[in-house]
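To close the chapter, one final illustration. This time we ask the reader to focus less on the individual chains and more on the assembly as a whole: which components sit near each other, and how the overall shape emerges from the parts.
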Amino acid sequence: MRVVLVAGTTKTAKIPGLSAAGADPSLVGHTPSADAEIIEYGDTVRSPVTPVSPTGCPTPAAITRAVRELTGFDALVVDAGLAEPTAAPTIDVGAKPGRDIREADPVPTAPGVFEAARQLGVAFPEDELVIGETVPGGTTTAMGVLRALGEDIPVSSSLPENPTGLKEEVVSEAFDASGISPEQTAHQPELAARFLGDPVLPVVAGLTVGALEADIDVTLGGGTQMLAAAALVRHAGALGDVTIATTSYVADDVPAFATAAESLSLDLVVTDPGFETHPLSQYAEGEAKEGAGMGGALMLADEMGVLDDVETAALDVLSRLDPAAVDGVEDGP
Amino acid sequence: MRVVLVAGTTKTAKIPGLSAAGADPSLVGHTPSADAEIIEYGDTVRSPVTPVSPTGCPTPAAITRAVRELTGFDALVVDAGLAEPTAAPTIDVGAKPGRDIREADPVPTAPGVFEAARQLGVAFPEDELVIGETVPGGTTTAMGVLRALGEDIPVSSSLPENPTGLKEEVVSEAFDASGISPEQTAHQPELAARFLGDPVLPVVAGLTVGALEADIDVTLGGGTQMLAAAALVRHAGALGDVTIATTSYVADDVPAFATAAESLSLDLVVTDPGFETHPLSQYAEGEAKEGAGMGGALMLADEMGVLDDVETAALDVLSRLDPAAVDGVEDGP
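The assembled structure is written out below.
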């Protein structure tokens, strides 16, 4: 069993106010590279920053790493358009960093990476894959892709207050820039990803389509971005069993999540890690919520009977990443 | 503890008669990509071929994989100029495939990748690294680098009959093409690698220099190519403890190996896997001998008390890679 982290970037994340995946917009480009290192090594290596939200909420990659330390799952990172160096080994599928979706053709590599990822998915010598994603700004591109496919599914946010109005505005400008209309790319997933998306979504979708062809069990571990990836899979005509595993934080934030999962014929697993200790308690306050495979990792932790140990293990990971963040436990924030 | 496989290519390997790392010269470019997949997954994934020598001797990557299955070590692949796609995740240090050393500037990226690898070596969050290599044609480039540094150390071969005359001729042409003389790049390891080498040697040397700076124990797992890498390390002025771990097949082939290791202040470990069963018995007949970290993996197997299990485990790996090759066990070759 492997957890595959699909890691990439979109310049869309640089729009102020869209993403909490970095202390400020200048740092979001490092977040996927750092997340990959944290899952691979339990620490940052080449990356100059440890990803936190603007309020200091730690990256969900730390939770995925904690589950890896508890369960020993194999990890694997696919480069879906990383913009900064990472010391995590990555698989190349030809992806480049995505441009701002308000440009005419933000992800020209989408059709090519979809196909390369599909071929990789077919070839994986595994029985079971859990796929996660890390791409700051990804809920905005997910909104764009869902609209392009004609799917009426809402998206969540890594911020406590979802900047829905701003996202609507960005997605509207993206449709204008690429000259297509909502619903126009139904059943053309490569075009939806190319004109409204980011490079991560076609890689996740391609891996999933390929794995289904090879009878590999697939779990998409994530939130509403994974609903967008699953929509791409269904619009590609792939009908096999797919599970979506998310956190209780996303499920609570998006009441329509279960309905959306059902509309895409996905089995839904929601896991509550029960975080109570600072800084992890910020998740219960609506920060971050999901990402870097967290929902999938929590599902595995639950299946292996170690869910109750995740908080302690995650605090241990965080103490290595940034001792100051966890010292706050005793002193209060 | 990690085993790092530094995997790359040099067009030098296309010269007929130089390398046994492929059934014929047209296939040697796939060998490092396939070796990386075999160590990562225990099977080829994207690679269209399973590397064997012209006589059918299996790649040493199968032995390294067998030891991984016995001991559970973490593996990591650095892309030191791969020419073909691999499904193994790789770390990027900016390397490109090396050109034929009979061209004027075959590895212009050598200084840059040495420095990028050094920085990676410093940053690895590990206490101990075993570094292996896979680069067809690598003993010829190793000869070039050793001569450029002024080190009087002979090189081995993946062929039973070392084509020493041909290698001398190629290296002589390489000196002519680059306009430098033997010994001229002593204490300038980046230039020796750039003008006479392949992209793998400066990556191995850079990783080692960086790891030594960070007080990480380093074992170079390989044959005379690793002597060339160690020479680059010493000519870079790095003085720390370095072990070289090779197979008995290389040590038997190069009587001067121990003396050379001593002259470079390397601790030497020689391990005999005792292969007796076809097709692994070809190793005892002088085929392949070493590569893909085999000597380092055998050292680990010995340290962990599983050396006697390696042959059976390797036959099991081979039966997955190519059932026909191992069916020969019962029928004879």
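Chain A has 13 helices and seven strands. Confidence is low (pLDDT under 50) at residues 329-333 of chain A. With these observations in hand, you are ready for the problems at the end of the chapter.
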